[in-house]
């Protein structure tokens, strides 16, 4: 099994190296010239090999995942529970930050309302001239 996966990984690596080396071997890409027909077919073939190797490796991982889910469901359940706990912790933290922000904005709003009320009341109460206050 491990040798099979190593073969898949090796095939993926070698196909990627082939793709990259073909691009690096030609100056056509850097100079902006079009690739000739032979190079185009070589690039397409290497990319096709790379995609096939990637699909095979993905299929192998999916088989391993399915095997794990079928034969060890308690492990999968534990992983899912841990993910949910982590998500809940993140959401609790976000709620705490949001509540803190709401408190800050509520206090700021109350301060502004208090200032506005004081200004409004000050405008309603007629101001006596300073000379009248000093005569008493």
Helix content: over 70%
Q: Number of helix segments?
A: 5
Write the H/E string, N to C. Answer: HHHHH
Question: Would you tell me the structural class of the helices and strands?
Answer: mainly alpha
Give unreliable regions as ranges. none
Shape: elongated
End-to-end CA span = 105 Å
What is the strand tally? Answer: 0
Mean pLDDT, to the nearest integer, reads 83
* Strand proportion: under 5%
Quick structural gist:
This protein is 89% helix and 0% strand. With 136 residues, the protein is mainly alpha-helical.
Descriptive key words:
transcription, 136 residues, elongated, coiled coil, transcription regulation, 5 helices, 89% helix, 0% strand, mainly alpha
List the helices and strands and how they pair.
Blueprint: H1 2-25, H2 28-31, H3 37-71, H4 73-124, H5 130-135
Would you mind describing this structure in some detail?
- This is Mediator of RNA polymerase II transcription subunit 28.
- Keywords: Activator, Coiled coil, Nucleus, Transcription, Transcription regulation.
- It is built from five helices and no strands.
- The chain has 136 residues and is an all-alpha fold.
- It is elongated.
